[in-house]
Amino acid sequence: MNDLGPIFRTLLRNKLGALLIALQIALTLAVVTNAAFIIRERAADVARPSGLDEPNTAIFITTLFDPKADQRQLYRDDLEALRALPGVVAAVPIQSIPVSDSGWGDDFYTTPEMTSDESINTGMFMVDEQGLATLDLELLSGRNFRPEEMIVRSLEKMESPRVTIVSKALADALFPDGDALGKTVYDEPNGEKPLEIIGIYDHMQNAWPSSENFEHSALIPALAMFGGQMMYLVRAEPGQRDAVMAAGEEYLARNRSRIVEIVRSYEEQKQRTYGGDVAMIKLMSAVISALAAVTGLGIVGLAWFSVTQRRKQIGTRRALGATRFDIVRYFMVENWLITGIGLAIGVVGALTLNWFLDTEYNTGRVPLWYLPLGMAALWLLGQLAVLLPARRAANIPPALATRSV
Amino acid sequence: MFSYYLRLALASMRRTPVLTALMVVALGLGIGAFMTTFTVYYLMSGDPIPHKSAVLFAVQLDNWDPNSPPTESAKDVQPQLTWQDGQNLLRADTPALRQAHMYAAGAIVVPESGEPPFDETIRATSHQFFAMFDVPFLYGGPWDLRADDDRASVAVIGRELNDKLFGGENSVGRRIRLDDNYFEIVGVIDDWQPTPRFYHVDAGGSFADTEQVFIPLLRAVDVPMGPRGNTNCWAPLDESLPTLQAFLQSECVWTQFWVELESPEQAAAYQDYLDNYAREQKAAGRFPRPLNTFISKVNEWLDVNGVVGDDNRVQLRLSFLFLLVCVLNTVGLLMAKFLGKGGEVALRRAMGASRGAVFAQNLVEVGAIGVLGGLSGVGIAWLGLRAVESLYRGYQHLVHLDPLMLTTAVSLSVAAAIAAGLYPVWRVSRLAPAGLLKTQ
Questions:
Q1: What are the pLDDT digits (tens) for A333-350?
Q2: Residue A208 shares a structural domain with residue A289
C-alpha cells in the first residue's frame, strides 16, 4: 500500500471535496442504520402469530336493518349454511376479530377483595362451541363449551356467562402457580359475576396489537345482538378459502333485509390492522434505497469528474509504468479512505440520531451490531460506485501524456 | 443581462449533462421526499377551522375509576363524556354562547329508488352544532331547539349523499330511510371537510370523512342507534335496568361535548361553571377522583389527542436528513463542476468581467439547477403523496399539493441549490485568472 501517502496528500489538496463526501457518507450511515432498525422492529411486530390459521380464515360482517327479524334464528340459519359449504372446516359467530384493533376489553378479578388497579386485563371473544376449531386453538387442558352454556347478550337482555376458556398467557397471569383450570374468576369487583375457567388453550392474541397484554384473550359462550351487526369467522380447508369466501358471500347476500358489509381474508385484515407499520416499513425501505442511490450516484459523478480532470496526470502515470490495476487501485483506495472517514463520523451520527429518536418517539435502541453491518454495506457501495469511473481511468492510454505538452 | 447569463448557464449544463442530471435528480429526490412528509405533517397539524379555532373548546370531566393513576394533564383524562354529563351540561343555564353534545352512530340507508341499501356513519348531535362549526348549507338549514326537545325525525344530509339519493336536487322536505325509520330532510350541507376532523378524533378517525347524515341526538338514542366510536367503561352497568337505560345512566364515556366561548372572560366563567358542576356531582356521590375539568381550544385538543403521530414526526425528521444528504451531494458535484470551469472563468475575467459579474453569472446557473431540481421535486412529491395515500387508509384528505406547497417546494429547492452553490461559486469567482490562462 505504498499508494497511501500520495493519495492522502492529494486528498489534503482538496480537503473540502473529500470532507463533503465523508459527511454525506456519515449522514447516510446515520439514517440507514436507524431506518433499517425501524424496519426490523416493525416487521417483527407484524410477524407475531395471531394464533389463528391465518392463510385459511375468512371474515364475514353483515348488518341487519330489519329490527323485526328474528336475529337468533338468523344466526342459526347462517351458521348451518356456512358450515355446510364445501371446504369449510368450522365456522363461528363472533363479536370482534382478533388483531383487528377493535374489540371488547374486560378485567378479571381472582378474589372478591381485589381492587381495579390489581385486576388483569384481557380481550373477550363471544363464540359458540366451534370457537376453538375455527380459531385453530389447541386445548391444553379442560373442555370445550357445551351448547346449553350459550347465553345471549343484547340490548334487552344482558346475560352473564358462567364459564370461560382462556389463553395460557392469561391463565398464567391470573394464577401464576399454573393451576388456573377449574378456578373461579370474577368479571367485576366484590366477587360479582363469577366465571369458571373450564379450559386453557395454547395461544391467541386479542384485538389490540399495541396493548401490553396482547396475548391475554378469553372466550365466552355467547351470542352478541347489539344492533344489527352480525360477524362470522370461517376456517376453510387449505386452498379453499377464496371459494368459501365467494360462496359465503353469495349465501349471506340472499337475505334482502341485511347488507353484507365486509368479506375479507384474515390475512388482509391483519395487513390493514398493521397498516401503519406496513406503511412505515415501505417508506423506510424507500428512504434506504433512495439514499443508497443518491450517495452511490454522487460518488460515481465525482469520481467520473475527477478522472476527467486528471486525464493527463493518469496518462503520465501510465507512461511511467503504472499498470491499469494500479490506476484502478488508486481510485478504490482513495474512496476507501474517504468512506472510512465518513463512517467514523457516521457512527457518532447514527448513535446520536438513535438517541434522539428513542427519547422523543420511543423507537427503541439500535443494537450495536447494526453499525458494523451498515459500515460494511456503505464501504461496499462506495467501492462499487467508484469501480466504473476507475475502470474508465484505467483505459486512458499512456500516449495521452505525450500529447499537448 | 439575466437572459444572457441564463443562456450561458444552459450551455454550461449541456456541456456536463451527466453531472447536471445527477444534481437535478439528487435535489429532486431530496425535495420530493421532504415535501411529501412535510405536506402530510403540515396538513395533519393544520388548523381545521382557522376563523373559529380560538373560540371553540372541547370539554373534559373526570368521572373515572378512583384506582387509576393520578391525572397530570388533559391527556390523562378520558377524551369523551358520559351521556348523563353531556345532557346535564347541555340543559343547564350555561355561560357558553353555543354548545353541542354528540356521538357517532350509524345506520343502513335504504334508497326509495330500489338501489341497494348501504351503510352510513351518522352524527347524532344538538341543533347548535351547525352554527357553532360554521357548517355551510346548500339547501335549507339546521333543525331548531324544538326539534331537539321533541325528538323530531328530521335530518340534515351531506352534498355527496344528496347527489347519490336525489341527483343533487333540493331535497328539503323529502325523506330518507335509516334502517326502518323515516327522517324528513331539513337541510343539505355543502362540501365540508375540516382536516383533521377535530370534533371527534377517535383513534384512527381523525382524518375521516365528515358524516353525511346528521340527526337530533335524543332521536338517535330513541331508535336506538349504538355508538360507533370508542366506548370506555370502568364501572359495571346497573343490571336492574334494561341494557340501554343502564348504558345511558352508566359511567361509560362515548359522547363528545363542545362549547363556543367568545372571550377569555367567558372561558373563565365556563371553567368555573364546569368546576361547580363537578363539585355537585361529587356531592351526589359521583366523580371519586380529585377535581379535574379541562376545556381545550381546537389546536390544544388536537395536541391532547396526539393527532400527529410519532411515525409522522420520525418520517419528517428522517426525510429532512435525507434532504441534507442530497444537498451535500449537490455541493460536492457543484464544487467539482465549478473547479473544472477555471479556464472558462479565467478567460472571462481576462476579457474584463468583474468578480461580481462572474459570481452573478455562476449563481444564475446554480439557481437554474435549483429550479429544475424543484420542479422534479414537485413531481416526486406528487408520486410520494400518491404512495402515502395508498399506504395509509383515511389519508385521502391529507394528500394534495396545494399552491402554497408547490411554491414552497420550488423555493426550497432554489434556496437549497443556492446554499449548496454559494461556496463553489465564490471559490470560482476568486480564482486568479493569470495562473489558469498560462496552463491553457
A1: 989 999 999 999 999 999
A2: no
- Note the pTM of the prediction, 2 decimals: 0.86
Q: Among B25, B244, B336, select the one facing A306 at the smallest CB separation.
A: B336
**How many Cβ atoms are within 10 Å of A292's Cβ, its own excluded?**
16
In a shared domain, residues A228 and A280:
no
**A218 and A362 inside one domain:** no
Q: Is residue B197 part of a domain?
A: yes
Is B86 within 8 Å of B250 (Cβ atoms)?
A: no
Q: What's the rounded Cα separation, in Å, for the pair A193 and A83? A: 33
Any B CB within 8 A of A253 CB: no
What amino acid occupies position A346?
G
**A79 in the same domain as A222:** yes
Nearby residues of A250 by Cβ (< 8 Å), 6 or more positions away: none
Q: How many independent structural domains does chain A possess?
A: 2
Mean of pLDDT over chain B:
88
> Could you tell me if B114 and B239 lie in one domain?
yes
Tell me the pLDDT band of A65, cut-offs 50, 70 and 90.
confident
| Cα–Cα distance for residue pair B274/B68, rounded to 1 Å | 22
pLDDT band of residue A84 (cuts 50, 70, 90) is: very high
* B108 to A63: CB separation less than 8 angstroms, yes or no: yes
What is the ipTM score, two decimals? Answer: 0.86
Q: Which residue of A has its CA nearest to B322?
A: A291
The predicted model gives B265-272 an average pLDDT of 94
Cis peptide before B224 (omega within 30 of 0): yes
- B318 closest CB neighbour out of A23, A276, A287: A287
Cβ-Cβ contacts under 8 Å, B16 against chain A: 305
Distance CA A262, CA A260 (A): 6
Cβ within 8 Å of B, A 352-371: 353, 356-357, 360-363
Chain A 178-217, CB below 8 Å of chain B: which residues? 188, 192-193
Whether the per-residue pLDDT at B440 is higher than 70: the answer is no
How many domains does the structure of chain B reveal? Answer: 2
For residues A31 and A73, state if they share a domain. no
CA A24 to chain centre: 30
Residue B90 within any structural domain of the chain = yes
User: What residues make up the domain containing B94?
Assistant: 86-260
Per CB-CB distance under 8 Å, the chain B contacts of A37 are none
CA B111-B117-B122 angle, 5° bins: 85
Q: Which of A:286-325 have CB within 8 Å of B?
A: 286-287, 290-291, 293-295, 297-298, 300-302, 304-306, 308-309
Identify whether residues A251 and A280 lie together within a single domain: no
Determine, for residues A31 and B242 on separate chains, whether the beta-carbon distance falls below 8 Å. no
Rg over alpha carbons for chain A, rounded to the nearest Å, is: 32
Are B332 and A302 an interchain contact pair (Cβ–Cβ within 8 Å)? yes
Q: Is there a domain that residue A392 lies in?
A: yes
Residue corresponding to grid cell 397539524:
B45
Judge: A291–B325 Cβ closer than 8 Å, yes or no: yes
Contact B387 A21 (CB under 8 A): no
The residue of A39, A117, A155, A339 whose CB has the most chain B CBs within 10 angstroms, and thus the best one to mutate to test that interface, is A155
Residue B187 falls inside a structural domain = yes
B111 and B241 inside one domain: yes
Instruction: Specify the range with the lowest mean pLDDT, choosing from A145-149, A152-156, B119-123, B159-163.
Output: A152-156
Separation in Å, CA of A140 to nearest CA in chain B: 32
The b/e string for B383-401 (b: 16+ C-beta within 10 A; e otherwise) is ebbebbbebbeebebbbeb
* Assigned domain for B302 exists: no
Which range of residues forms the domain containing residue A200? 66-256
Residues B186 and B321 in one domain: no
- Model confidence at A286: pLDDT above 50: yes
Between residues B431 and B111, which one has the greater pLDDT?
B111
The residue among A33, A39, A65 with the most chain B CBs within 10 A of its CB, best to mutate, is A65
